Amino acid sequence: MDKTDFDLCIIGGGINGAGIARDAAGRGLSVLLLEAKDLAQGTSSMSTKLIHGGLRYLEFFEFKLVRESLQERERLMGIAPHILSPMEFVLPHNAAHRPFWLIRLGLFLYDHLARRRFLPGSRMVNLKASAFGVPLADHYTRGFVYSDCWVDDARLVVLNAMDAAEKGAKILTRCVCTKILPKSQHWAIEYQPEGATKAKSITASMVVNAAGPWVRKVLEGSGLDSQVKPVPNVRLVKGSHIIIPRAYAGEQSYILQQSDGRVVFVIPYEDEYTLIGTTEEDYEGDLYEPRISGDELRYLCAAYSTHFEADITRDDVLWTYSGVRPLFDDGHSENRAVSRDFYLHEHLESRAPMISVFGGKLTTYRVLAEKVMGRLLNLDHRYAPPWTSEVPLPGGDIAEGDRETFVRKQGQLYTWLPADLLARYVRSYGTRMERFLEGAEGLDDLGVHYGDGLYEAEMVYLIRYEWARTAEDILWRRSKLGLHVDEATVQALEKALPDLKKKVLGDE
Ligand SMILES: Cc1cc2nc3c(=O)[nH]c(=O)nc-3n(C[C@H](O)[C@H](O)[C@H](O)COP(=O)(O)OP(=O)(O)OC[C@H]3O[C@@H](n4cnc5c(N)ncnc54)[C@H](O)[C@@H]3O)c2cc1C
Fold first, then answer.
1. Domain 6-43+154-233+339-377, CATH 3.40.50.150 — does that match?
2. Fewer CB atoms near the end CB (10 Å): N or C, the chain?
3. Is residue 36 lining ligand 1, measured as CB closer than 6 Å?
4. CATH number of the domain at 403-505, please?
5. What angle do CA 305, 45, 343 make, to 5 degrees?
6. pLDDT, tens digit, for every residue of 417-455?
7. Distance 484 CA to ligand 1 centre (A)
8. Do residues 471 and 494 make contact, with C-beta atoms less than 8 angstroms apart?
9. Quick one: fold of 83-150+235-328?
């Protein structure tokens, strides 16, 4: 092989690109990751945020996918206990949608397809005698309860990127890859940094195209979509969520069966809200700006109102978000039937390896990364073997699965921290909160307060270690504080950022 600038260049800083960067850097490869915008600015911050087997995929006989996802659920609970939370799901039974025995069978499989260490198995519930039945429509008498996990999706991305960087990877955000040129034994990659007049180029021995919904666009821009081996299609399916004020007491979520065979989740969100989603609509618009349609809004309000005692209308909706699933097109006509499994396409234009990633789920990103690396390295013993299944992500080295004990411990250490701020820091940063709290003896030591619990020390940390550059990065991806803070705080933060960035990054 020719001498190149990097062993591996990854296009796309969503969950798949960041996961692959972490895996590769940890095996000793020199890695460059190019992300066109901010980390997780594509689909990976717009998901339902479940780390789950996907109960409904059993109906499509996707046993391998569900088993692999359930295994990953356990592994991710082990490596990211700070940002993952176990969550109970109540499934109110409606015989018109699926017979009782079918759901029992499905849940039996769900309980037994993979080994469980952290989560309890499923059970039946009398909704008339349980608090879980209180918010539901009166006609529901029985149902089921099972467990899955919730994760802050955008933080999962950034933690993977951080770990990759700590292992030597170069992560460049706001750099669009414009060309991937095959050379006989390597690849030449051109990219355009935001605001720069000139494009840059590097060489790499291997390339991974993990551009999610843009996977084909990246290939088309380089003429790599029609050569040698046919490239599969990507099916772009929009999914939207609505957020309403907290709708019921309790931490349980609900999974609602729809008459079209789909399911809609209702999830407690960010303490004060309830999240309802999602939909499935074919999508052809701007991939960075998907928006909820009137039909989706009506569908989600109706899904909630049919199953719950209280009705909601669009007037109850405080905020919405939409994302585009980059599904591997397996030829199914119905969006809900298209597999959520991933497909790795190997390109043959150069003797140097290149893979494009199609499809996948947040839940399976780690195993996807492992498989990508397995294919690329093809038993190349110069590099370390798979390693990511048990090593905690940054900040995840708290006692296994025991976030509450860690909260108590940190509370004793930082007695002056308000309880809500302490809880937020633990849920976002785990042990890494020490990096900006160490040595502080009171809130005054955290620097300027921009409002609503946003202190300078945390902002500096986000700029220095998490590639945050704008208020939107901070308020909507590194956190979901955008839902809580008022306009004065946003303005104070926006005003402060240029100086903060200069202080932390110099003239980068
Ligand atoms: C509504 C919805 C709900 C979902 N819910 C769940 C769920 O609950 N659980 C679950 O497991 N999965 C869920 N998923 C699936 C999951 O979110 C996706 O599979 C995953 O986020 C895709 O990640 P990705 O890295 O492939 O793509 P993305 O996150 O979109 O990342 C691709 C990145 O590539 C960048 N890029 C594009 N072009 C270029 C270029 N030329 N140069 C450099 N960078 C470029 C983009 O800016 C983007 O950041 C959901 C998806 C949707 C849409």
1. no
2. C
3. yes
4. 1.10.8.870
5. 100
6. 999 999 999 999 999 999 999 999 999 999 999 999 999
7. 25
8. yes
9. D-Amino Acid Oxidase; Chain A, domain 2 (3.30.9)
